Amino acid sequence: MKKILLTISLVALTVMTAVAQDVTGKWKTIDDETGEAKSVVEIYKENGKIYGKVVEIFDASKRDRTCTECSGSDKNKSIMGLVIIKGLEKDGDEYNDGTITDPTNGKVYKCYIELDGPNTLDVRGYIGFSLLGRTQTWKRVN
Which InterPro entries does the record match to this protein (predicted)? Predict the structure, then answer.
């Protein structure tokens, strides 16, 4: 009986750890220069890849803005609801080979994301190779 309970406990712990270590969910974006919370991005899986869209903007004066500097199909789209993370693929502990759009200037960067604990996500946008870029730390929203 003790072996069965121990086995069930280990399986439950493994499942809870796997769920807690998932990048999907809602994340509060924190500006890496000001330390200020700016928005909430919902990260989700679609066709085996990771995407993220803006679902909340904290500054009421910026909620109705559009991405005038964006190009292609994102040009002049509302920033609220805009998919800013596109096409990331799992590679070990990180997700990479996708892009992230900065909706304030419309620039598109290569991107990778990596969990730093169950409730902290490091998001790096870069040009060329990852040493030339910036990292923001986002916090999970419960």
Answer: DUF2147 (IPR019223)
Question: Which letter does DSSP use for residue 129 in this model?
Answer: S
φ, ψ (nearest 5 deg) of residue 17: -65, -45
Question: What's the CATH architecture for 23-140?
Answer: Beta Barrel (2.40)
**Which residues are paired to 114 by β-bridges?**
94, 122
Q: Where are the domains of the chain?
A: 23-140
Which residues in 25-40 are b (16+ Cβ under 10 Å) and which e? ebbbbbeeeeeeebbb
pLDDT, tens digit, for every residue of 60-104? Answer: 999 999 999 999 999 999 999 999 999 999 999 999 999 999 999
